[in-house]
Amino acid sequence: MTKITDHFTLEEMYASEIADRNNIDNIPKDPTILKNLYFLATQLELVRSLLNSPVHINSAYRCLGVNNLLGSKPTSAHVQGLAADIICPAFGNPRAIINAIIGSHIQYDQVILEYDRWCHIGFQPQGEQQRLQQLIIDKSGTRNYAKDTKRKNWEKTVGESEPDMSYRTPKKTTKRTSRKSKR
Length: 183
Ligand SMILES: [Zn+2]
Description:
This protein is 29% helix and 16% strand. It is an alpha+beta fold. Strand 5 and strand 6 form a beta hairpin. It starts with 9 loop residues before the first helix and ends in a 32-residue tail after the last helix. 33% of the residues are buried. Residues 78, 83, 85, 120 line the site of zinc ion.
């Protein structure tokens, strides 16, 4: 294992079940991508200290082959080694993670709540302007994170500092399924 920061290894930056299953070499060799992954790891260290809990990376670097298999756009920050899909069960659910990041001084390019299951955090290359975008992506598409949060009552209980574990049993009554007809 190659430790690149205090709590992250290079291997977990490119580990990919999809790559393994499809016999794809997902090990980055491009120096720019490696540099980006080091930068990503330093930013993830900030997230880890903010949450004061271990951060698990579901997926960080993805070569184009892996990225395509996942149905992700070729312009994805993952392809450049500049994004990670993370969870932090010891801290709270993905919304709690995103709320904490939004409330912090961390300069991110994008935080995206994806399918209510993980937090995507992406960056522009080191030294470039980070846009601080906050989005939600799910079956209904892509939308602004803040607006969506205002719309749903039970999610208001997710605080910035307080881990909220109630997401495991969200009140179904607040989830309208009337949009199902939309294809
Ligand atoms: Zn992602």
